[in-house]
Amino acid sequence: MKVLVLGAGQLARMMALAGAPLSITISAYDVNTDTLVHPLTQQQLGSGLAQALEAADVVTAEFEHIPLAILEQCQASGKFLPGASAIRAGGDRRVEKALLASAGVANAAYQVINNQADFEKAVSRLGLPLIFKSALAGYDGKGQWRLKEAAQTASVWQQMADFLAADSSQAIVAEQFIGFQREVSLVGARSRTGEVKVYPLTENHHVNGVLSVSLARPVDHALQHQAEQMFAAVAEQLDYVGVLAIEFFDVAGQLLVNEIAPRVHNSGHWTQQGADCCQFANHLRAVCGLPLGSTALVRPTLMVNILGEDEVPNAILNIPALGLHWYGKTKRAGRKMGHINLSANSTAELKAQFAKLIDQLPASAFPELEQMLHQL
Ligand code: ATP
Ligand code: MG
Ligand code: MG
């Protein structure tokens, strides 16, 4: 099978690695440059979307911020999974919030803001504190504002007014600020025949809006059940095919959906060594019409993102059950450059191994890990 992936980043790269044993070949389409590239070497293979669509058996995406015209062209090919409307639901927070409402899943109360009257309505109806998110193009906490105290109201509105004035396609979604205990996510797959398999809930730790550590270990059954019900409701509403990720806030054992990602997800990288079938293989199985693989937890596993660094001490490779993944990207401050997966036979052993890993990593590049170790 030949799969065309919209986007040429690390997720397309990891799909290519997972697809190889199944004889599924990936070509990656860079939507910004209109070129087709090899997902591992980034070597240019051609240009033009029409030709790439023609050559592909299946078309999918590694990210959601894709121009509408490209989504429509892919949809028209009849080969696009999970399809244009699912990708749009992940890429436009207005569409996403409407989807969550129609799927009947709990999420933060919100208000769409196009002008000052909407803003004032959001403040009076939802109350403070509030979080504001750009409707389009937001990721890693970018394009967000927070309003904690009434005294900041005018200056926060001014920043948002400037933002709205600069781009007429944009809007802002205001959300009630949720006082959550933890953030967790559920990554799962839905097949062409409607079969759903989900991985265990993963605990996520962010730093400055960017994922730093994900931890997968045996989870509370009630919480897992809640997440699975919500996952199934959203996936069915979208008639979804492929891997879907849902981020949740855990508020005293009640889950609220934060957002969805209609694709393989950073909080699912641990599945590369903590599950029999990783999220990348399961995504390809789903979109190619193959049976889904097991999503059961084989052993407790955590993932550490390598942000803005292009090297770590090679000696960490001496740690048993440690996997190091580089994405082959040019170094830039804060950029996702690679990740480390670490597994053990029990959560206690995983904590001990994590402590050993932290000792070997430069604290300057991973300042938050020590504190996270104590939260586990
Ligand atoms: P991602 O890279 O995960 O796609 P994003 O830029 O789309 O991120 P969100 O996940 O919506 O942004 O928000 C980033 C972080 O901000 C969340 O992980 C959470 O810590 C915090 N946050 C978002 N919405 C709320 C909310 N309503 N209440 C409290 N905290 C929130
Ligand atoms: Mg997001
Ligand atoms: Mg998020």
Describe the structure.
The protein has 12 helices and 18 strands. Strands 10, 11, 12, 13, 14, 15, 16, 17 and 18 form a 9-stranded antiparallel sheet that branches. It has a 5-stranded mixed sheet with strand order 4-3-2-1-5, with helices on both faces. A hairpin with a 4-residue loop joins strand 2 and strand 3. The model has no long low-confidence stretch (mean pLDDT 97). Adenosine-5'-triphosphate (ATP) binds next to strand 7 and strand 15. Pfam families: ATP-grasp, PurK_C, RS_preATP-grasp-like. Catalyzes the ATP-dependent conversion of 5-aminoimidazole ribonucleotide (AIR) and HCO(3)(-) to N5-carboxyaminoimidazole ribonucleotide (N5-CAIR). It is an enzyme of class 6 (ligase).
> What's the SSE pattern?
EHEEEHEHHHEHEEHEEEEEHEEHHEEEHH
Ligand inventory: adenosine-5'-triphosphate, magnesium ion
CATH architecture of the largest domain: 2-Layer Sandwich
Largest sheet, strands/sense/barrel: 9 strands, antiparallel
Q: What percent of residues are in strands?
A: 25-35%
- Topology-level CATH name of the largest domain: D-amino Acid Aminotransferase, Chain A, domain 1
Name of the top-level CATH class of the largest domain: Alpha Beta
Number of DSSP-assigned strands = 18
Structural class: alpha+beta
Number of domains: 3
Helix count, per DSSP?
12
Q: Overall mean pLDDT score? A: 97
Distance between the termini: 41 Å
Compute the gyration radius: what is it? 21 Å
- CATH homology superfamily name of the largest domain: ATP-grasp fold, B domain
Instruction: Show unreliable segments.
Output: none
Classify the helix fraction into a percent range: 25-40%
What would the principal axes of the Cα set say about the shape?
globular
